[in-house]
Amino acid sequence: MKFHPRRTIRALLLPLAAGLALTALPAQTAQAASTLTNGGFESGGSGAATPAGWSEYGDTGASYTESGGHGGSYRLSHYSTSAYKVETYQYLSGLADGNYTLTAWVRSSGGQNAAYLALKNCGSPEQRTDLPVSSSGWIRIVTPVKVTGNQCTISVNSDANAGNWINVDDVTFTSGTTGTTGTSGTSVHGADISSLAKSEAKGGVYRTGSGTAGDALAILRSSGMNYARLKVWVNPADGYNDKAHVLAMAKRVKAQGMKLLVDFHYSDTWADPGAQTKPAAWAGHSYSRLKTDVYDHTYDVLSALKTQGTPADMVQVGNEINGGMLWSEGSTDNWSQLAGLINSGYDAVKAVNSATPVALHLAKGGDKAGTEWWFDNALANGVGFDAIGLSYYGYWHGPLADFQTTLDDAAARYGKPVFVAETAYPFRLDSDDPLTNQIDTTAELVPGYPATAAGQARWMNDVASIVEAVPNGRGLGVFYWEATWTAVPGNGWDPADATSGNGWENQALFGYDDRALPSLSWFSHR
After folding, report:
1. First CA to last CA distance, the chain
2. 3-state class (DSSP) for residue 278
3. C-alpha 9: how far from chain center
4. Helix, strand, or coil here: 292?
5. Taken in order 170, 172, 178, 183, is the CA torsion positive or negative?
6. Stated pTM of the model
7. 29 φψ region: left (φ > 0), alpha (ψ -120 to 50), beta (else)
8. DSSP symbol at 69
C-alpha cells in the first residue's frame, strides 16, 4: 500500500472531528478579508492545490484549479478517483451588516452525496444551494443571506463518490438580493391541483407522510406550498374544471392562505401545443364573435371569483399557446387575429381588476429562439401581458443550461417577470393503473436525476434555483404540474371517457400508498 501522508493524517483526525463542522480543522487557512478574493480562480493559474485567497479542509488533494474556466482561463474543480469530502472556503470579516447574494457559475457530474455552495457563520441560519447536474453547460446559481455580526464564510462543498466532479467559477459576493422577497428567493412555490376535485369525488385519499388521512390542500400547505393553479374548461364532458368547480376549489385554496392562478384553456378539453380546439358552443362563431366569447367567458369566471371573495391573483390567457389558441382563427399563422383574441382575454382580466397580472404561457422552456420568435411577434402585434410562464419538462425540453438561457433571455428581452408554469418529475417508473405512464423508462430520465422521491426533490430544487437566479429579481417561482393526480378509477386523462387511465401518477407528489412524498420539501426551497 502506498503511504499517503495527507490521507493518513486525515484518517487519524476524523474520529476527533466527528460531529464537528467541516471547517472545524482547516488544513490551510487564508487571511480574512472584507471582500471576496480570487473569485475567478485566475490567480495562481492551473494546478493550484489551494487557490489564492481560499482555504481548504478535508481531502484537499481533491480540490484544485485547472484550465477551462467559465469567464476566464481557470476554474475550481473537485474531483478524485476515490470517494472524497472536501471544502474550499473563504472567510470574510469587516462586512457591513445587511443582505448579500453569492453568485457562481457551476457544473456538476451528479452522483455525489452532496455538492453545494453555502454561506455560514454569517449571524443568520446557514444558506445552501445545491449544484444542479450539468455535465456540459455552465449554470449560474445564487445563494442569498442576511449578514449580522460583520462576517460570513463562503463555502464550496463536496461529499462525493469516486469519479464525481464539480466545477465552480466566477464567484461573487455582493450587497443586495436577487430574489423577489429578500433572502427567501422566489415568491411562488406552487402546484397545479386541477385534478383534485374529481379525484376526491371518485374516492381519492390523501395522507400525510406518516399515513394520517387529511385534506390534500392542507398537507401541501403545511409543506410550504403557497400558490395553487387551476385550469378552466368551458363545458367539459365530465363536468369538472368548469366555472362551478373552480369557484368551489378557490374557496378551499384561499382558506389555506394560498394565492390563486387561474389558467384559461378556452376549450372543453386539454389545450396544448398539439391541440387548441374551440369549445363546442363556440365552434361556428365568427372571429369577431370569438373575441366576444373570450372576453365574456374570462370576465364571467373572474368576476364570480371576485364576488365570492376569492379573487384570482394571476391569470393565464391561454395554455401552452405555442401555435396560438382557438384554432384555426387564433393560429400563429394569423398573428393579428391571435393578438385580438389574447387582448380580449387581457381586457377582461383588467376589467375585473386592473392590478391582476396577466401571464402568457408557452411550452418552450428550453427553446430560446422559439420563445423570442413568439414574443417578438406578440409585441409587434400589440399583445398585452405582464408576465411570461414557460413549461419546462427536462425529459422533453432539453438541458437545464438551455432552460436557464431561455428564462434569463425572456426576462431581459421583454422586461417582464418569468416563472415556470409547469414542470414535474417521476418518483418511480412503474404504473399504478393499467395505462402506461408517459415517462416509464430510465432512458427517458434526465441524466443525474433518478426516478426516486429524492430524484424528484432534487429536480424541483434545481429548477427552483435556476428561477431564483434570474437577474434583477424577475424570477417569480415554479408551479409543479398536477401534484394530486394519483391513480383513481374514473379520474383518467380523457374527460369524455370514464375508463381512461392516468399516465401521470408516477409524477404526482403523493405515492402509490397515498402518502405525501418527501419531495414535498421542495416547496420550502430557499
Report:
1. 45
2. coil
3. 42
4. helix
5. positive
6. 0.92
7. beta
8. -
Distance, in Å, from the CA atom of 267 to the CA atom of 341, rounded to the nearest integer, reads 13
- The three-state secondary structure class of 387 is strand
Whole-angstrom Cα Rg for the chain? 25
Query: Burial letters for 81-110: b for 16+ Cβ neighbours within 10 Å, e otherwise?
Result: eeebbbbbbbbbeebeeebbbbbbbbbbbb
Q: Which of 447, 464, 386, 400 is nearest to 185 (CA)?
A: 464
How would you write the pLDDT of the chain (526 residues) with one tens digit per residue?
A: 332 332 333 333 333 333 333 433 344 445 556 799 999 999 988 888 999 999 999 999 999 999 999 999 999 999 999 999 999 999 999 999 999 999 999 999 999 999 999 999 999 999 999 999 999 999 999 999 999 999 999 999 999 999 999 999 999 999 986 543 333 478 999 999 999 999 999 999 999 999 999 999 999 999 999 999 999 999 999 999 999 999 999 999 999 999 999 999 999 999 999 999 999 999 999 999 999 999 999 999 999 999 999 999 999 999 999 999 999 999 999 999 999 999 999 999 999 999 999 999 999 999 999 999 999 999 999 999 999 999 999 999 999 999 999 999 999 999 999 999 999 999 999 999 999 999 999 999 999 999 999 999 999 999 999 999 999 999 999 999 999 999 999 999 999 999 999 999 999 999 999 999 999 999 998 6
Of the candidates 225, 256, 246, the one whose C-alpha atom is nearest the C-alpha of residue 477 is: 225
Cα distances (Å, whole numbers) of residue 32 to 49, 116, 341: 19, 22, 60
CB-CB contact of 506 with 429 (8 Å): yes
From CA 17, how far away is CA 321, in angstroms rounded? 57
Strands 259-264 and 134-147: unpaired
Contact yes or no for 387/416 (Cβ under 8 A): yes
Q: Quick check: 486 and 202 in contact, CB under 8 A?
A: no
* Edge-first strand listing for the sheet containing 74-79: 63-67, 74-79, 165-175, 98-108, 134-147
Task: Give backbone dihedrals phi and psi of 130, rounded to 5 degrees, phi first.
Answer: -70, 150
Which cell numbers hold the place of 486? Answer: 394519483
Amino acid at 526: R
Omega of the bond prior to 328 within 30 degrees of 0, cis? Answer: yes
* 227 vs 187: CA distance, rounded Å: 9
The residues that are catalytic are 320, 422
Q: How many CB atoms are closer than 10 A to CB 370?
A: 14
Are 85 and 71 a contacting pair, CB within 8 Å? no
Give the three cell numbers for residue 521: 420539501
**Contacts of 295 by beta carbon, 8 Å cutoff, 6+ apart:** 344, 345, 347, 348
Q: How far is 129 from 525, CA to CA, in rounded Å?
A: 9
Helix spans in 148-242 (H): 196-201, 216-222
